[in-house]
Design brief:
seven-stranded antiparallel beta sheet; binds fe (iii) ion; flat; about 10% helix; mainly beta; single chain; 60s Ribosomal Protein L30, Chain: A
Amino acid sequence: MYQYKEVKPSCYVLSLDNHVEISEALSAFCLEKDIKSGTIAGLGAIGEATFRFLNPATRRYVDKTFAEQMEITNLTGNISRKDGKPYLHLHITASRSDYSCIGGHLLCARINGACELLVEAYDAQIGRRPDEETGLNLYEFQP
Ligand code: FE
């Protein structure tokens, strides 16, 4: 699913295997390394992805799948825990064959080419709690 190298303490460079789903691979890596919190940065190429947009007025999620080859021009995210499991919050910007970009909250994306990521893990417990006003799972810093 992935290969990695720890380049400094708690800081990993990852190369995900072709055709894997990015959030799945990242969740597996967080479980393997028992990462409690951290940040993610990366780039790569994908053949299909589903983005999510939250309409704050209706508090409804609108999901859209793009089945086309795209370059990940930026993937950024954070790691926390919810209900004892890794909770990834990922956002993506991806460029199309006409060089225009689309982006959003990333639900899933399948690699078609390569995906190179940097994961920095923190030795701190960060959770998530549902927020009534926004309908989001916000950071929870209490132990
Ligand atoms: Fe988001």
